[in-house]
Write a structure and sequence with these properties.
The complex is a heterodimer of chains A (223) and B (379). Chain A is mostly helical and 223 residues long. Helix content of chain A is 77%, strand content 0%. The longest helix of chain A has 31 residues. The two termini of chain A are 32 Å apart. Chain B has 379 residues and is of the alpha+beta class. Chain B has two domains: 173 residues, P-loop containing nucleotide triphosphate hydrolases (Rossmann fold, 3-Layer(aba) Sandwich), CATH 3.40.50; 126 residues, RNA polymerase II/Efflux pump adaptor protein, barrel-sandwich hybrid domain (OB fold (Dihydrolipoamide Acetyltransferase, E2P), Beta Barrel). Chain B contains ten helices and 21 strands. In chain B, strand 10 and strand 11 form a beta hairpin. The longest helix of chain B is centred in the middle third of the chain and has 18 residues. The chains are: A mainly alpha (223), B alpha+beta (379). Chains A and B meet through helix 6 and helix 7 of A and strand 7 of B.
Amino acid sequence: MDWTAIGLSVRLAALVSVLLLVIALPIAYWLTFKRRRWTFLAEAVVALPLVLPPTVLGFYVLLAIGSRSPIGRLWTAWTGHGLAFTFQALVIASLVYSLPFAVQPISAAFARIDSSLLEASAMLGASSWRTFVRITLPLAKEGILAAAVLSFAHTLGEFGVVLMVGGNLPGVTRTISIAIYDQVQAFEYQAANQTALLLLVFSFLVLAAVYALQRRPWSVSPL
Amino acid sequence: MSGATDVSETAEAGRTLTVTVRKRLSAAFTLDVSCSAPPGITIIFGESGSGKSTLLRTVAGLIEPDAGHIAIGERRLYNSAAAEHVPAGQRRIGYVFQHLALFPHMSVAANIEYGLAHLPADQRRARAQAVAESFRIAHVLSRLPAAISGGERQRVALARSLVTDPVVLLLDEPLTALDHATASRIIDDLRAWNAAHGIPILYVTHTHREAFALGDRLVFLDGGRVVATGTPHEILDSPASEPLARLAGFENLFDGVIVARRPDAGTMRCRLTGPGPGAGVEIEAPLAHGEPGDRVRLAIRAGDILVAVEQPRGLSARNILRGQLVSLTREGPTIHAVVDAGARFQVDLTPGARDDLRLGAGDHVWLIIKTHSFRIVSS
């Protein structure tokens, strides 16, 4: 088994799910509690990665971070090398790719909170921040946990986006799914089978955990 | 609290809540009220959709009005002319929500202490303990809200609001889910608390029993406007409008025509219009404005009508109507009877009365109604 690829994927997924929580919490808060007339457009943008082919997404990320883009040039000026086909590029692409998997469970959990609890907190003199920390976050903790687990699992299994922006550099950008692809291409079915089975079992355990946390009637998507 | 025993008018004025606000909520509904609430319980009475909760939320600062002003004594909370709007959390107003809004993930003690974040921990604990004792919930302080009874939850919600020493308390139909005995014990404790603190309490309800039992004053809202203000007795016993009559427990409302006036006796004869053509019955009602031939609306409580199975004699009551029992239905401790006596009367009986008189649908009965049991409601 390609333990280097597995280690890399786990490292990528862990980093992405932590960063995504930081990014998704304010986005979900804004989408749920600060609704304006055009909020639905923002929701559509956040949900785009759910329906776009990973190659399309990867292509645009590649353009955005390429050596001719402002981001790419800034990165090169800063670090001395290009951003495309690096681990950092994978992180950026994965953040975009898994964003809806982090935002939607948190947003749904926020929306389920009885608004009179938030008003009661305000009436008792609490600031918006204190209300968020003492009431909103604790009551949404299942959704936040689901968001972390889902973005971890989703990042762990990604293929197309990784291939587009990361390529296939062992120890740098070769993730589990690319390792499986390589093994199949080289007719190493035994190794591919082991790695695939590992991913399958892991994904099942994650989904089982998320559904167990939600304790709600079954729906196709755990979001 | 040296001023608590001072009941002079200036002290009372300094604590009185005054509200004049306009808020357009939809094309069909605008809240447009002006009222005041001195220390003590003021009932905000009206049907659902009359603007009671909107008024409460406006006073609380959860809704910003379009125009007007809100003040407690001299202290301004809202003034559209000066663009003043004190945020909800800084108004020092206690709010007990209809479904209480206790924080489900916090213990009763943490719920009560929530509004005391500015105090050190030992003071928080001492004040929560004191208020918990006056509301008889000290024994459930360590439990979660889901693990205590409905009455206890209600007490926790009150304690949580009052521990912060608010200058006004707002209660949004807080006792509707409780049985009568539990509710009245809670009200007694609230009254005891307010005897020492003397703050205005706005109590929203749509049941006339609560309004009679609780209020020193009553403000009747209909369609977003204040329609009547006074003591509960003044307003509910001689309702000035039909929605008020319905809410005040006048189950019977009739169309009628004035037949003859007897100003010397203070009465008039009216003909009630029955359900079908040819129906109708003449009754004697208290004198009101109007000439013979004018249409009137008459109201009477189902509980103010007596039933007899034989024709009664030698009664002072001026209206003895013969009729037929249409139906009897039981609802809790009350039997609702419908009697066709030219017009359809709803009559409330006890189950015991029904059994003693052996009443059944189709029986012939006499209805006995005092002249002044009828109220003339301007339509």
